[in-house]
Design a protein that fits this description.
The chain is α/β, with parallel strands linked by helices. It contains 19 helices and eleven strands. It has two domains: 264 residues, Rossmann fold, CATH 3.40.50.10540; 78 residues, 2-Layer Sandwich (formyl-coa transferase, domain 3). Helix content is 41%, strand content 13%.
Length: 399
């Protein structure tokens, strides 16, 4: 079963000091791949637990389940020196430490890179922040929307008539988390070979720039900014959303000329395929203003279901524009087990996205840890703390 939890990183232990979305998304991916991720939270908990922006009647936001599944949990007061000692013990017993504090916070806790190396020479440290550990913006606060805006991507979204729009599925956060997870897997591989750790400095802004890809290449080569893309792309046509008699569809008749020719036949306009103004994608993109009203007029003559049946038969890349719930319930996504359910205590059964890495048979996801529910058992099993020490730590409010 794809979409679930695998054992690719079995035997790897990761201390997770992250909160909000970007860092927890990184460590969630690693937990999905089988790593033992120990989520260390302050006494007040990860703020996402109480960010009641989502639906449901639970006392905890179900969004927390999305980014913290498959992890173990520990509440630890790092403002207390004894809490810092517990963290030091965890560092000694682990393979990696992931944090998304502002630059300098980890050092103020007494865990600069040199100290961490002395505790565990093979440790991989991953610092994930909005702007990186150095540079003129390093100490600024940063969130998903601001890094999307600063990275250039937000200038491409939306329509000229309505202005820019941020990508709403946390691309600023998840983009940084993806690169952090990739870097961690590579650094863990090196550490296993050499016995020496490595520090990773991952910037969410850097990730946005990397994800822009050829938008940067083309803009720099042309010496001018690209226009807003709307639902398509200025360099490709027909490639975007088209309104039918009832609902819009997405058409991508580009890449190879046969798709354009197939589309012209499906539309009942084979003459368009012979028109020199539209011969090749470059010509169609340049002459979009002449071609677009023609295609729009034709597509409005039939409804979505009719057009999709015609275009599928003609081998034209086209699809409905699914809502989120339509996507969740679509047969391909269900077949790939990309929607998983977890038992989330008071919140009941919660549906979360699966993991797209299909490495063969996989297990079901475990729910995110409850706040403080596992702390004593975790310290007993991982660090060998006895009941007397646990009682002292609990009595002082350290755990």
């Amino acid at each position: 079963m794809s979409g679930g939890r695998s054992d690719l990183l079995g035997g790897v232990r990761i201390v997770d000091l992250t909160m909000f979305v970007a860092g927890p998304y990184c460590t969630m991916l690693l937990a999905d791949l089988g790593a033992e991720v120990i989520k260390v939270e302050p006494p007040a908990g990860d703020p996402v637990r109480s960010n009641r922006s989502g639906p449901g009647s639970s006392s905890e936001n179900i969004q927390f389940q999305t980014y913290n599944r498959n992890k173990r949990g520990l509440v630890l007061d790092l403002k207390n020196p004894e809490g810092v000692k517990v963290l030091a013990d965890l560092v000694r017993a682990s393979d990696a430490l992931v944090e998304n504090f502002r630059p300098g916070v980890l050092e103020r806790l007494g865990f600069d890179w040199e100290q961490l190396q002395s505790l565990n020479p093979r440790l991989v440290l991953c610092s994930l922040s909005a702007f990186g550990q150095d540079g003129p913006w390093a100490l600024r606060p940063g969130y998903d929307m601001t890094v999307q805006a600063l990275g250039g991507g937000m200038s491409l979204t939306g329509h000229p008539a309505t202005g820019p729009a941020h990508i709403p599925f946390h691309l600023g956060d998840t983009g940084g988390g993806l690169f952090a997870a990739l870097g961690l897997v590579a650094a863990l591989h090196q550490s296993a070979r050499t016995g020496r750790g490595r520090r990773l400095d991952i910037s969410m802004l850097d990730a946005q720039v990397a994800l822009l890809g050829d938008e940067i290449t083309n803009a720099v080569a042309a010496g001018e900014d690209p226009p807003q893309h709307g639902s398509g792309h200025p360099a490709f046509y027909p490639y975007g959303a088209f309104q039918t008699a009832d609902m819009p569809i997405a058409v991508a008749a580009v890449g190879v000329e046969k798709f354009w020719q197939n589309l012209c036949g499906a539309l009942g306009r084979p003459d368009l395929a012979q028109d020199p103004r539209f011969a090749g994608n470059g010509q169609r993109a340049r002459n979009r203003a002449e071609l677009e009203p023609v295609l729009n007029g034709i597509f409005r003559q039939k409804n979505r279901a009719e057009w999709l049946a015609i275009l599928e038969k003609a081998d034209v890349p086209a699809s409905p524009i699914h809502s989120v719930l339509e996507a969740v319930n679509s047969p391909q996504i269900r077949h790939r087990h990309m929607i998983q359910e977890v038992e989330a205590g008071a919140a009941g059964r919660v549906s979360v996205p699966g993991n797209p890495i299909d490495a063969g048979p996989s297990a079901s996801f475990a729910a995110a840890p409850t706040r403080g529910g596992e702390g004593a058992a975790l310290l007993r099993s991982v660090l060998g703390y006895d009941d007397a020490r646990l009682s002292v730590l609990r009595g002082k409010g350290i755990i």
